[in-house]
Automatic annotation (TrEMBL):
It comes from the Bacteria. InterPro entries: AmpC-like, Beta-lactam-related, Beta-lactam/transpept-like. Pfam families: Beta-lactamase. Its EC number is 3.1.1.103. Residues 68-308 form the Beta-lactamase-related domain. Keywords: Hydrolase. One of its GO terms (molecular function) is hydrolase activity. This is Beta-lactamase family protein.
Length: 330
């Protein structure tokens, strides 16, 4: 009953706010870019909430790009697809013998005898650590932020991450429970093991070798004033998810379709899907999606065949079905 009451209050607050500010209509862009056949497919398969779309398909190292209102060089937020970059850094460090999948948090970080001390790298990668989703998040702030577009990670630091992890009771440990906090903690662990900032690890270990020249991490103040802003579900511009500290390891990469195609080609040759990717056992593919208050992203890969599909929309309306449809046509 308490949960029901909280949900009812939150819904009332959200409804009141919407009545005050009023939602803005979101309509799909019509200006086509890139491959005519692929852009036509986008136009003919609209979904509610789609705005500006950018996509690519990849077959045997040949990428095909298209978009509506955006092209392969349009800057976007990829949200939690960032975790696949963090996972790949972990993969490299395991290969180099600097960490193991069974390395525990307590072996690397000063967490005393807190329950999190014996959580392993593998548990952090697979969301089975029992850590909560966020450090200081609440349901009310989440509802408010999703409407206003305010950055929910503003002001979060590595100290917040560590304090929350140390205090966590690890409820439902062993069960997959999605945790941005877990990946933030993994980011701190990777920094400590290498004595290298997470942003530098990204550049040296992935961006540079993959040839990603238009991609960057959204640290505070990193997003230019004239850079694109996504739209909230109410049609208002969302703040970029700039993040201080290692919460960035959970979802702070800004990229574009061109660079994401470069990453995908590079990953198929060098990466390991055992480090954080979700598996579609029916189709023998691997995927990860991502969402911020202003963007939705989906990346699907089949490392064996060298096929992949990527889609991004600059509103929270999900592109999972679109990416899957594009992949199924390959």
């Amino acid at each position: 009953m308490r949960k029901l009451a909280l949900a009812t209050i939150a819904a009332a607050i959200s409804a009141t706010f919407l009545l005050i500010v009023g939602p803005q209509r979101i309509s799909m862009a019509t200006t086509a870019t890139g491959d005519p056949e692929l852009s036509t497919y986008l136009r003919e398969h609209p979904e509610p909430g789609f705005n500006n779309l950018t996509v690519f398909t990849l077959v045997q190292e040949k990428a095909t790009f298209a978009g509506l209102g955006a092209d392969e060089h349009t800057e976007v937020e990829i949200g939690s697809v960032t975790k696949m970059f963090t996972g790949e850094i972990a993969h490299q460090l395991v290969e180099e013998g600097k960490i193991r999948l069974d390395t525990t948090v307590g072996e690397v970080l000063e967490v005393d005898d807190a329950p999190v001390s014996d959580v392993t790298v593998q548990e952090l990668l697979e969301h089975t650590s029992g850590l909560p989703r966020l450090a200081n998040g609440s349901f009310f702030s989440s509802v408010f932020g999703s409407v206003t577009g305010a950055n929910p990670y503003a002001g979060e630091t590595n100290r917040n991450i560590l304090d929350t992890a140390i205090e966590a009771k690890l409820e439902d440990r062993g069960t997959e429970t999605y945790s941005n906090l877990g990946y933030a903690l993994l980011g701190i662990l990777l920094e400590r093991v290498t004595d290298t900032p997470y942003e530098q690890l990204l550049h040296e270990r992935i961006f540079k070798p993959a040839g990603m020249t238009e991609t960057y991490l959204m640290t505070p103040g990193a997003v230019p004033e004239n850079a694109p802003r996504g739209l909230t579900s109410t049609g208002r511009k969302a703040e970029p998810w700039e993040m201080d500290g290692c919460f960035a390891a959970a979802g702070a990469i800004r990229s574009n379709a061109s660079d994401m195609a470069a990453f995908t080609e590079w990953f198929i040759k060098n990466g390991d899907t055992a480090f954080g990717w979700q598996e579609d056992e029916d189709n023998h593919t691997f995927w990860h999606n991502g969402g911020t208050y202003g963007y939705s992203t989906m990346l699907i890969i089949d490392p064996k065949s060298g096929r992949a599909a990527f889609a991004n929309n600059d509103s929270p309306a999900g592109v999972e079905n679109l990416a899957q449809a594009l992949f199924d046509q390959l």
